[in-house]
Amino acid sequence: MSDRFAHQLRLDQIRDGERLDLIADDDERRAVAKRLGLPSLDRLEAHVCLERTGEVVRAKGRLLAALDQSCVITGHPVAAHVGEAFALLFTPEPAAAPDEEIELGEADCDVVFYDGAVIDLGSAIADTLGLSLDPYPRSAGADAALKEAGVLTQEQASPFAVLAGLKRNSDS
Fold this sequence. Notes:
By secondary structure, the protein is of the alpha+beta class. 27% of the residues lie in helices and 35% in strands. β4 (56-70) and β5 (77-92) form a beta hairpin. The chain is elongated, with a radius of gyration of 23 Å.
């Protein structure tokens, strides 16, 4: 079984304008699901166009996935579908001193550093999937479970709701 969704491409074999269809097999989907803490990952594919300028490779395309996440309240599976565009910029590791910090701006969030010879497109796609997931998935029974546990909704806990409750109590 493979330990990840690895699609390594040697820089010297990447053609400008090359199109790739990456479709994860069962083992790769299980590995990515485990890495991302997903109960299941039924589909993972990426349709990519590569542009190369020297040692810099741009990967633009569309990520498609069908998966289950665990509800943050009940732990029950929550079905999710991902279908979104992505743009990645692969660039060689900067030649910084070992203790020197590298500052990245907001526009650099999709930059993936590589060793100068090989890019791992599959791993970058898996990371992109992880970033596109709902950080707080909730199942249909989440609200009932919260109510049963005595957790107030945002509206019930608002200062205005508390004041209204105090007014009702003082009127009785």
